[in-house]
Amino acid sequence: MKLHEYILFGLIGLSASTAGAVCGIGGGVIIKPLLDAFGLLSVEAISFLSGCTVLAMACFSVIKSISSGDSSVDKTIGTPLAVGAAAGGVAGKILFHMVASSFSDRNRVGSVQAVCLLLITIGTLIYTIKKDRIKTHDIKNKGICIIIGFVLGIFSSFLGIGGGPINLVVLFYFFSMDTKTAAQNSLYIILFSQAASLVNSIAAGQIPEFSFLLLAVMVLSGIAGGAIGRKVCKRLSEITVNKLFIILMAEIMMICCYNIYQLS
């Protein structure tokens, strides 16, 4: 890869991780479709790098929140969700490789991911706009939490987005969380699902080809984005975070439409 391509990957990783840390969407939901649009690497490599970037950002953000004592993660709910997400992360990775192996043209896999992400993003945007008029729930049952986490883990791992907007919608609807609380709990879930997905990929020998330097650039951009995002989030009101989230969803939808056209 050329120098300007490394810079491009680093800037995308940094900006997406910053936004992801603020909104709790992980950043992969921005990284994955954007890098697909540039088409510089295979779909498998981009999914893997996106997951590693999100994992680095989530790890930094969660550890920093806990160590500084400002974590709003509800462990009674968040931990069962995270355990389910870890199992779902493994299942989602297996599903991804099953789908990938069924296509002779690997670009088709990217188009499938883009369609799924577009549908999820549209649903998320509609819910976010109308959420004040939607009755929410306050689930406490740990078994149900594990099941919900498992489904979230499958989506995040299969799509290579870390967690994305679907995490927030689920936390809003099933657990009646406000935006900032949902963001921190979402990152906690993402940490477990992406860690499990990475371990599974390494154990199964399913690591795609890319340069180690590029991986280092993406991981460092994820950590830096997590640090910047934490500081920015403290300065923003919940209303502003909601507006930023809606803007990001609209941008992601446009990128997905482009990817569906380009990869189909």
UniProtKB/TrEMBL annotation:
Cell compartment(s), UniProt: Cell membrane; Membrane
Record field: transmembrane: 6-31, 38-63, 75-96, 108-127, 147-175, 210-229, 241-261
Main localization category: membrane
Annotated keywords: Cell membrane, Membrane, Transmembrane, Transmembrane helix
KW Magnesium (keyword) present: no
CC terms in the record's Gene Ontology section: plasma membrane
InterPro entries: TM_pro_TauE-like, TSUP/Inactive_protease-like
Membrane topology: Multi-pass membrane protein
UniProt record similarity statement: Belongs to the 4-toluene sulfonate uptake permease (TSUP) (TC 2.A.102) family.
Database matches in PANTHER family: MEMBRANE TRANSPORTER PROTEIN MJ0441-RELATED, MEMBRANE TRANSPORTER PROTEIN YJNA-RELATED
Name this protein carries in UniProt: Probable membrane transporter protein
Species whose genome carries this gene: Lacrimispora amygdalina
Species lineage: Bacteria, Bacillati, Bacillota, Clostridia, Lachnospirales
